[in-house]
Specification:
heterodimer; A: two-stranded antiparallel ribbon; two-stranded antiparallel ribbon; 6 strands; B: alpha+beta; five-stranded mixed sheet; 21 strands; 26% helix
C-alpha cells in the first residue's frame, strides 16, 4: 500500500483544491475572533461603555446641566412644574432625617436621582467610569509591561537572574493581593510617594494605578516565564544562538512574538481584574479620592443610602458587572482565537 | 469633651422617661443581664486621666469616682455637684483658695486595695505626669501646678494637694479662688486612682477604680467589657448608684447601617454613633418609642490651624465662615429636628449666650444664608487662593458627609481641597497634635461642665495649646493674650458676680467669634436609639444616657 497521498492531478474534477489566499497567524486569529459573535457582542458592549464614559462631560454639561463634583445639598430641580428639593426632609413620625431625590428616569434631570450630597448620580457614574477605566487600563499596561520584562529576562537568562527575580515575585505573591494593595494604599495615600525627581501626590490617580499594577505582576510574569523557558529550548532559538545572534535580538525577534499571544489574552482579563481591585480600594476610601468619582467611591457613597436610595449603590455595581463581564467574554474569545492548539487541530 | 453620645436634655422630648435614679437592690427583678452597646470603633485610650471623649466619659461615671461628682439624676439635676469619695461638700476657706475634703472610709478599688489619702495625692499628681489634656486648663490653679506643667515627670504639687493621714483629709490649695473648681474635680480627669498606677498612658490596660463597675477587658479592635466591681458597696445613690446590668459589653467595628439594624432586631441595645441620615426617617416613623431626642450644650465645628497656611491668615478663616451653608450642614446631619445652625462658640442655654452671627448674608443675631461672594473676595484678598487644604474627618457617616460638603465649599471659594478620613479611634488625638500639621478638621465638642469657660477657655485658651502633644484640645492653636486675659478676668468675676461675669463672657464670645479660629457649624441634639427591651431610660444633662441604670431584664 502506498504511503504517499494522491497527487492533486489524480483527484477528480470535483475534488480539485480550491485556491486560498495565504493568511498569516494573526489574520487567522482575527478572522476567528470576528466570527465569534458572543465575543464581538462583548466588545461592542465594552466600546459602548467606554464611549458613554468618555461622553460624561458632554452629558453633564449639555444634557443633565449638573456639576457632579459640587455638593448641592440645598439645591432643587423642577419636576412637572414643581420645585423639588434634592435632599428632602422627612415628614413622617418624628420628622427625623432627610432623603435624597430618587430616580426621575428623565435623562435631562437627575436620571438616577441624587446622592447624599445632592449630586447627580447618573453623571457621577459616567465620570466615575472614566476613572475606573483609566485606572484599569493604565495599570494593566504597566503590569503587562513589567510582567513581560521580568518573565522574559528571568526565563531567558536563567541562573542567578532567574533566581533573584523569581524570589522577588514569590515575596509579592506570598501576600494576599488585596491585603498588599490595601497596605500599600494606606501607607502611600496620606503623604504620596516620592522617589528621586518623581513625585506622586496623595490624591493622584497614579497611586492606585501603580499599586494595582505592581501587585498583579507575579500573576502575569509567571506564565510568561514558563512559556519563555519552553521557547528557550526550541529549535529556532537554539539555531539563532548557534549562529551567534545577540540575546536581545533573540528576545525581541524570536521569543517576544511567541509570547505575545499570551500577553494579548491577558489584556482584557487584567483590565477586568484591575477594575475590580480599584473599585474595592476606592470603596475602602484608599483608591480614588473624593471629590473624584469612580464606581467604587460611588458604591461607598451609596452604602449610607442603601435602605432609601439603593440605586446609588446598585447602578455603579451594574456598571462594574457589565464591564467586567464584557471584558471576560472578550478575553475568552481572544484566547480561543489565539490558542495555538486550536490551529493544530485545524491542520 | 468630644464625642458626644446622644445626650438627653431636660426638655420633655419624645419618649423621655425622666425618673429619678433608682438604686438596684439584689432582690430587684431588673437587676442583672448584659447591656450591649455598639460603636463603629473604640474611643482610644482607657486611661481616665487622658481620654477626653464622651464615648468613655459616659462609662467613667460608673467605673471611677472623684472627690466630688455630678449627680446621677435625670435632666438638669445632673448638673448638681455632690460629694462622692469625700464625705461632704467642703466649705471654702482662705478666701476661696483652700478646700479640705474628708475622705470616706471603707471604700475599695476594684483590685481590693482600700482607698486612702495617698491615692488622692498621687491621682492629682498623675494629671500632670501623664500630661492630661486639661492639666493646663482645669488644674493649673492648684498650688504647685506651675512647676508640674514645666516638669511633669517630677510633679509633686507641694503645698497644693496635702494629705493628712491621721485625720483622713485632703487639703487642696489654690493659687486664686476658682468658681469652677468643683466642676473641674468632678469630671473624669479628676478621678481617684490607686497611688501605684504607673505615670504613663495606660492605653488598653484597665486601671482599677472605685465605681460600681470595673473594666474587665479591652480590645480596641473588638470589645470593651465592664463587669460589677466585686468590692463595691453603695455609699451614695446620688454619687455612685449600684447599677442594674451585671455586665456592659461595648462592641466595636459595626458600621452605622448595621448598628441601627442590630438595634431594631434586638441584637444590640444602643449605639454611640450618629445614625446614618437615611435611617433617621425609618427610626422616627417605625420605632418612635425607642427614639429619645435631647437638647445638648454642644457644637459641631471645624477648627482651623491658625499657625500654618492658609488659615494663619484671618481673612482665610473668615472666608470659610462666610462660605459655609449651615442649613446644608444641618440637613446632612439629620435635619432641623436634630440640629440648628450656629455661628458663635457659647452654646444656647449657657450663661453669657447672646445670639450673634456675623457670618451670614445679613449679619445679626441669627444665621440666615452663606455669603459666597464675600468669601471668595476674602480668599482673594488673603492671597491664599489655590492652596492645598486637607480636611481631616473621622470615619462615621455624618462626619464624612460634612467633610465632603466642606471640601466642596472650600473648592468653590478657591482652595484645592481634599478630605482625609481617619478612624474615630485616632482622629481626635491626631488633629490635636501639631506635628501632623492639620490645617482644618471637623470635630465635636460637648460640655465638660456647664460653664462658658468650658467652651471658650478650654478650646481656645492659651493654656490648652500644647504643641507636639496628642492632648492639645486647643486644636486651632489659637492664643490671643488679650482675649485670654479677658477670659481669666471673667472667671474671676464669676466668683462674686455671676451676672457681670455673664456679660464678660458675652464679650469674649464675640471677640473670639470675630477672630474665627474655627467655623462653628451647628448645635446638635442627641438621639438615643434603644432596643425595645431597654427600660428605665434616664437622661442626665451632664453625662447623657445613664447606661448603668438601664433595665435589660
Amino acid at each position: 500500500m502506498s504511503s504517499s497521498l494522491p497527487a492533486t492531478s489524480d483527484l477528480g474534477e470535483g475534488l480539485a483544491a480550491v485556491p486560498r489566499p495565504a493568511l498569516g497567524p494573526w489574520a487567522r486569529a482575527g478572522r476567528k475572533l470576528v466570527s465569534d459573535r458572543v465575543a464581538m457582542g462583548a466588545l461592542g458592549l465594552f466600546i459602548l461603555i467606554v464611549l458613554a464614559c468618555l461622553a460624561a462631560p458632554l452629558y453633564a454639561t449639555y444634557v443633565a446641566h449638573t456639576d457632579p463634583f459640587t455638593s448641592n445639598v440645598e439645591g432643587s430641580i423642577t419636576i412637572d412644574g414643581q420645585d423639588v428639593d434634592l435632599i428632602q426632609p422627612s415628614t413622617e413620625g418624628l420628622g427625623l432625617g432627610s432623603v435624597p431625590l430618587g430616580p426621575t428616569w428623565d435623562i435631562h434631570n437627575y436620571f438616577l436621582g441624587a446622592d447624599g450630597q445632592g449630586r447627580d448620580v447618573a453623571a457621577r457614574i459616567l465620570y466615575g467610569g472614566r476613572n475606573s477605566l483609566l485606572i484599569g487600563g493604565t495599570s494593566t499596561a504597566i503590569c503587562l509591561f513589567l510582567a513581560a520584562l521580568t518573565g522574559l529576562v528571568s526565563g531567558f537568562f536563567g541562573g542567578v537572574t532567574d533566581m533573584l527575580i523569581s524570589r522577588l515575585l514569590d515575596v509579592l505573591w506570598a501576600f494576599p493581593i488585596y491585603l498588599l494593595a490595601i497596605s500599600l494604599s494606606i501607607v502611600l495615600i496620606s503623604h504620596g510617594f516620592t522617589i528621586g525627581p518623581f513625585e506622586i501626590t496623595s490624591g493622584s490617580l497614579w497611586l492606585p494605578i501603580w499599586i494595582i499594577a505592581i501587585v498583579y505582576v507575579p500573576y502575569v510574569a509567571r506564565p510568561i516565564r514558563g512559556q519563555v523557558l519552553a521557547l528557550k529550548e526550541s529549535e529556532f532559538v537554539l539555531a539563532a544562538k548557534g549562529l551567534g545572534v545577540p540575546d536581545w535580538r533573540i528576545l525581541w525577534r524570536d521569543i517576544l512574538p511567541n509570547v505575545m499571544t499570551t500577553i494579548i489574552v491577558f489584556v482584557p482579563l487584567m483590565v477586568a481584574v484591575n477594575m475590580l481591585t480599584e473599585s474595592a480600594l476606592s470603596f475602602l476610601s484608599i483608591g480614588v479620592q473624593a471629590p473624584d468619582a469612580s464606581w467604587g467611591t460611588i458604591i461607598q457613597d451609596g452604602q449610607d443610602l442603601i435602605y432609601t436610595r439603593p440605586w446609588v449603590a446598585i447602578a455603579p455595581g451594574i456598571a462594574i458587572v457589565l464591564t467586567v463581564l464584557a471584558l471576560n467574554i472578550l478575553g475568552d474569545g481572544l484566547r480561543d482565537a489565539l490558542d495555538p492548539r486550536a490551529k493544530l487541530r485545524i491542520r | 469633651m468630644r464625642r458626644m453620645k446622644w445626650l438627653v436634655g431636660a426638655a420633655a422630648a419624645a419618649g423621655l422617661l425622666a425618673t429619678a435614679a433608682q438604686p438596684a437592690s439584689a432582690a430587684d427583678p431588673h437587676r442583672g443581664g448584659i447591656l450591649r452597646l455598639v460603636s463603629a470603633s473604640a474611643g482610644g485610650t482607657l486611661d481616665p486621666k487622658i481620654n477626653y471623649t464622651l464615648q468613655y466619659w459616659t462609662m467613667y461615671q460608673y467605673t471611677y469616682d472623684g472627690l466630688l461628682t455630678f449627680k446621677h439624676a435625670a435632666g438638669s439635676d445632673g448638673f448638681t455637684i455632690v460629694p462622692d469619695l469625700a464625705e461632704a461638700m467642703p466649705e471654702s476657706q482662705n478666701g476661696g483658695k483652700t478646700y479640705v475634703f474628708k475622705l470616706r472610709k471603707g471604700i475599695k478599688f476594684s483590685n481590693g486595695k482600700e482607698l486612702d489619702v495617698k491615692d488622692v495625692v498621687a491621682s492629682f499628681q498623675r494629671i500632670f505626669k501623664v500630661s492630661s489634656p486639661t492639666a493646663g486648663s482645669f488644674y493649673n490653679g492648684i498650688v504647685g501646678a506651675d512647676a508640674c506643667l514645666k516638669t511633669p515627670a517630677t510633679c509633686t504639687l507641694d503645698g497644693g494637694v496635702v494629705a493628712d493621714e491621721a485625720n483622713n483629709t485632703i487639703t487642696i490649695n489654690l493659687v486664686a479662688p476658682d468658681s469652677e473648681f468643683f466642676d473641674k474635680i468632678s469630671v473624669p480627669h479628676g478621678v481617684i486612682l490607686p497611688a501605684d498606677t504607673p505615670a504613663k498612658d495606660m492605653g488598653n490596660t484597665p486601671i482599677p477604680g472605685t465605681g460600681a463597675y470595673m473594666f474587665a477587658a479591652y480590645d480596641p479592635n473588638k470589645q470593651l467589657k465592664a463587669v460589677r466591681n466585686p468590692y463595691f458597696k453603695e455609699w451614695s445613690k446620688d454619687a455612685q448608684p449600684d447599677g442594674y446590668p451585671d455586665e456592659i459589653h461595648y462592641d466595636f467595628g459595626l458600621a452605622g447601617e448595621d448598628q441601627i439594624t442590630a438595634i431594631e432586631n434586638g441584637q444590640a441595645d444602643w449605639t454611640l454613633d450618629q445614625p446614618p441620615a437615611d435611617r433617621l426617617a425609618e427610626m422616627g416613623s417605625k420605632y418612635p418609642s425607642q427614639v429619645h431626642i435631647n437638647t445638648l450644650t454642644a457644637m459641631w465645628y471645624a477648627p482651623m490651624n491658625v499657625n500654618i497656611p492658609p488659615f494663619n491668615n484671618l481673612k482665610a478663616r473668615l472666608a470659610v465662615n462666610y462660605a459655609i451653608d449651615r442649613n446644608a450642614m444641618v440637613k446632612l446631619f439629620g435635619g432641623k429636628v436634630l440640629a440648628q445652625p450656629a455661628c458663635q462658640i457659647i452654646p444656647p442655654g449657657f450663661d453669657g449666650y447672646q445670639p450673634y452671627c456675623p457670618y451670614t448674608k445679613h449679619p445679626g443675631a441669627k444665621w440666615s444664608a452663606p455669603d459666597l461672594a464675600k468669601a471668595r473676595r476674602l480668599v482673594k484678598e488673603s492671597g491664599t487662593a489655590g492652596q492645598k487644604v486637607t480636611i481631616i474627618v473621622q470615619d462615621l457617616a455624618a462626619d464624612k458627609a460634612e467633610g465632603t460638603y466642606l471640601q466642596s465649599v472650600l473648592k468653590s471659594i478657591g482652595y484645592d481641597a481634599s478630605v482625609k478620613v481617619l478612624s474615630q479611634n485616632i482622629q481626635f488625638t491626631y488633629i490635636q497634635n501639631t506635628n501632623n500639621k492639620v490645617q482644618i478638621s471637623i470635630t465635636q465638642w460637648y460640655q465638660d461642665y456647664p460653664a462658658p469657660s468650658d467652651f471658650l477657655n478650654v478650646l481656645f485658651g492659651c493654656d490648652s495649646f500644647h504643641p507636639g502633644s496628642d492632648s492639645s484640645v486647643n486644636i486651632a492653636g489659637f492664643c490671643d493674650k488679650t482675649i485670654d486675659a479677658a477670659m481669666k478676668h471673667a472667671m474671676t468675676t464669676s466668683l462674686t458676680d455671676k451676672a457681670a461675669a455673664a456679660k464678660e463672657w458675652t464679650a469674649v464670645d464675640r471677640a473670639m467669634t470675630d477672630q474665627a479660629p474655627a467655623a462653628i457649624m451647628f448645635t446638635p441634639k442627641y438621639i438615643d436609639f434603644l432596643s425595645k427591651r431597654v427600660g428605665n431610660y434616664i437622661f442626665n444633662a451632664q453625662y447623657y444616657w445613664q447606661q448603668n441604670l438601664a433595665w435589660v431584664q
